[in-house]
Specification:
Oligomer: single chain
Helix content: 40-55%
């Protein structure tokens, strides 16, 4: 659920557990501003780790509003909300609004917000919007330290802006142009291929047999160098873009500072880590501390991951990125596995052909303008994961 008050959350807890349940009682105590430590009755059918890792995600934003925390969250509030207090903010838990990397978000009346993470996200995939939003939040904060920081991570900013600014079709072309993986003339060939494939004038199998008429030697090598598990369903343009995107992703992940710089963005963005300290003593649980950390301690790297939305049969959306932790490294995406040539299959021409504007020249990246719409999801019940 999005845009909740502490009272809204208490009502949800009561609806699920009842007025006299320990979870209801402790939620009310946090909402009242009761100082920690707080001692509560242990819950027989719940592990203390489930309470700490999941139910406390619900308590964290309430505790922040009521100033029941230790650590640096106030510093983040001053930077991104303009005040050291979270009082009067609205609470959201919906996955769209919290964007996958955080567990909750507090939003001020003027629309500015801060995200909170209650646990690590090893191997998690997320939309490039996570990075784009974080960069825009830093730009809007107008803090000299953050502006200096943005200048120190130019690689990540450029890559993120290109992906965010352009469509799922155009983005890979612009990235490949930026890194000189393709030429301007080859970019035009790829755009023309989109039109030809859409009208049925050329098919994947035809290009596998002979693509000299349409593609440069470099593009032909890429096109035939990557196999697809569904050749009979493959689309010529989707396959070409996928090959380009895989090749470009490998270059970004292995030859640039994008991964390290993107991890720094996540650490310095409007994202506060919250650590819960709960101990068990007999039949009691004691909530000792909600400790906040900003900037966060993200001992991770970030890698571009084209596999979720780019495939030879279709393009489903923009690039995602993957958080790599514990020494994990990105895998190579463009592995030279030449596809087997199959029979030439003619595709019936379509009546309407989408017209794309062909542009030349290097990309000039404008600042991204990101707007997100929230979707509602349930709040209570996280402890039962």
């Amino acid at each position: 659920m999005d845009d909740l008050t502490p009272k809204d959350i208490i009502n949800q807890v009561i609806a699920k557990y009842g007025e006299k349940h320990p979870l209801t009682i402790v939620t009310k105590m946090i909402e009242s501003g009761a100082p920690l430590p707080i001692t509560m009755r242990a819950i027989p059918d719940m592990e203390i780790t489930a309470f700490s890792n999941y139910f406390c995600e619900i308590l964290h934003p309430i505790a922040l509003q009521r100033d029941v925390f230790t650590g640096d969250a106030g510093k983040a509030a001053k930077l991104f909300l303009g005040t050291p207090s979270f009082d009067g903010t609205m609470i959201s838990f919906g996955s769209t609004k919290t964007e996958g990397l955080s567990d909750s978000i507090l939003t001020a009346a003027d629309g500015r917000s801060i995200k909170f993470s209650s646990k690590a996200g090893k191997g998690a995939s997320a939309s490039i919007g996570n990075l784009a939003n974080s960069i825009n939040e830093m730009r809007q904060a107008k803090d000299k330290g953050l502006q200096k920081f943005l200048k120190s991570i130019k690689e990540a900013v450029i890559v993120t802006d290109i992906i965010d600014e352009y469509s799922s079709k155009e983005g890979p072309i612009q990235l490949a142009l930026h890194y000189d993986i393709i030429s301007n003339n080859e970019a035009l060939q790829i755009k023309k291929l989109d039109r030809l494939a859409a009208s049925g004038e050329v098919s994947y199998h035809e290009l596998m047999e002979d693509s000299k008429k349409y593609l440069s030697a470099k593009l032909r090598k890429l096109f035939v160098g990557k196999a697809t598990s569904k050749p009979d369903q493959a689309d010529a343009f989707a396959h070409m873009i996928t090959c380009i995107m895989y090749k470009t992703a490998d270059h970004i992940n292995f030859n640039t500072n994008f991964g390290v710089e993107s991890a720094k963005i996540l650490a310095n963005a409007a994202l506060v880590q919250v650590h819960t300290k709960v101990v068990e003593k007999g039949d009691k649980w004691i909530i000792k501390e909600f400790h906040t950390k900003y900037p966060g301690n993200f001992d991770v790297s970030v890698a571009i991951d084209p596999t979720k939305h780019y495939m030879s049969t279709k393009i489903k959306g923009k690039l995602t990125f993957k958080i790599l932790a514990g020494g994990e490294t990105s895998r190579k995406y463009f592995v030279n596995t030449p596809a087997k040539k199959g029979p030439v299959v003619k595709v019936a021409a379509k009546k309407s052909v989408s017209k794309l504007k062909a542009s030349t020249g290097k990309v000039k990246v404008a600042k991204s303008k990101v707007t997100k719409k929230a979707t509602n999801k349930g709040t209570v019940g996280r402890a039962e994961r």
